[in-house]
Amino acid sequence: MNINLEDFWKNVLGEVELEISRPNFVTWLKGSRLVDKKDGVALVSLPSNFAREWVENKYNKLILRSLRALDQSLKRVEYTIDASQHNKILPQKTPVLITNQLAFQEFRVDPETNLNPRYTLSSFIVGSSNELAYAATTAVINEIGTKYNPLFIYGGVGLGKTHLLQAMGNEIKNLHKNKIRARYVTSDRYVNDVVWAIRNKRMDDIREKYRNVDILIIDDIQFVGGKERTEEEFFHTFNALYEMNKQIVISSDRAPRAIPTLEERLRSRFEGGMIADIGFPDYEMRVAILKTKLQEKNQELPDDIIDLVASRIQRNIRELEGVLNRILFHQQKKNEPASIKTAEGIIQENATQPVKQISFQQITQAVSSFFEIPEKDLLGRSRKKEIVFPRQIAMYIIREELSASYPEIGSRLGKRDHTTAIYAYEKISKEIQKNPALASKINLLKEKIHNS
Ligand code: ADP
Ligand code: MG
Description:
Elements: H1 3-19, H2 22-29, E1 33-38, E2 41-46, H3 49-70, E3 76-81, H4 83-89, H5 131-142, E4 151-155, H6 161-176, E5 182-186, H7 187-199, H8 203-211, E6 215-219, H9 228-243, E7 247-252, H10 264-271, E8 274-278, H11 283-297, H12 303-312, H13 317-334, H14 340-352, H15 360-370, H16 375-379, H17 385-402, H18 406-412, H19 418-434, H20 436-451
Parallel strand pairs: 2-3, 4-7, 4-8, 5-6, 6-7
Antiparallel strand pairs: 1-2
Helix pairs in contact: 1-3, 5-6, 7-8, 11-12, 11-13, 12-14, 13-14, 15-17, 15-20, 17-19, 18-19, 19-20
The site of magnesium ion has 4 residues, from helix 6.
């Protein structure tokens, strides 16, 4: 690029940057260049077709204004794609094989940090629904442990919490290599580690594992709520890290005060830091996500199909991706461009898809991990109080969720007859009525089972 153009563009971007949020600036304009400037026209290049469309639609006015502030002779902006960068993004000519499953396996999760390189900040689309969470994340990346500690990010299922947390870890790893030790863990896994350590008298091991880091990222903390020993251990880990100015990042499906079973002292710790929520993506953002995913896969779809999908799938980015993948899969199988009718059918299938089929075992596993008892005890004949109560809860949930028959429930849990199962179901049903803490525990459990 002509050096004068380069300097000139830097000044223009300086103006633009004052007017839009940092995340948007970084997402959309960082890779931009001024290629030419003559006859009143500025030619701006962007790294992808998609970025070009986005910038043209959203920032054209602002860019023109900023250009004109520095050069009155400019009347218009034209946009182009930077071929050199474009090729970097799309190296292969042949489309990558689309399957119903995202190609997670292509990436190797680092066993030390539990980070999956699939998740990057550059593939994270920023819009008004996640701008705050994104800005907080980048702030933490730049000032680990000192700026926002803890950082608590919450939002509904499939809205990008895991992506953002993982991308943060990856970014830090790339920036600092091994000088900053990051560790990502799902709260499930954390609970299992604590339970294992208690049982094997190896608490020192897990303290070493979770306190010997510079940044600890815990995903889906809501599942820790109500597990007393795990909460206790986490509370001390939290304090130990916090006192050493180590960064703690937490995600949850809801705000700290809305996690019913969370201990008060943990809640107030969480509320002492930065809390950012992620909301539902708006239409523009949904289109942006679909187009980015298409580009990543080196695939195309007509705009009316993209519009249809973006208009109809509004509340879950994972679903948005799922529907897109199914349309592409269909297209590939039939070897012809998908029609609006096909897309419509796939969207409808998605909407009417019954809640994922749950198995007996998923329920018993979830209950035993929730109550921190071995699954074989739950399934066995023990009459100890600390086993009987969780077993009754498992029976109740199985009846509710699977509509299993009482004889089946009885025989599979504790080899009992149907009267035991009926008794358990009725007892728990009654208790839920008068005990809100129990009701919320069971709700949490159900949620967990559905998400497993
Ligand atoms: P959550 O943890 O909140 O349930 P995930 O982080 O697992 O959600 O996101 C679900 C899927 O949607 C993932 O495949 C993720 O890559 C994708 N996704 C979510 N938010 C974004 C975004 N802002 N930009 C691009 N992809 C996203
Ligand atoms: Mg997640």
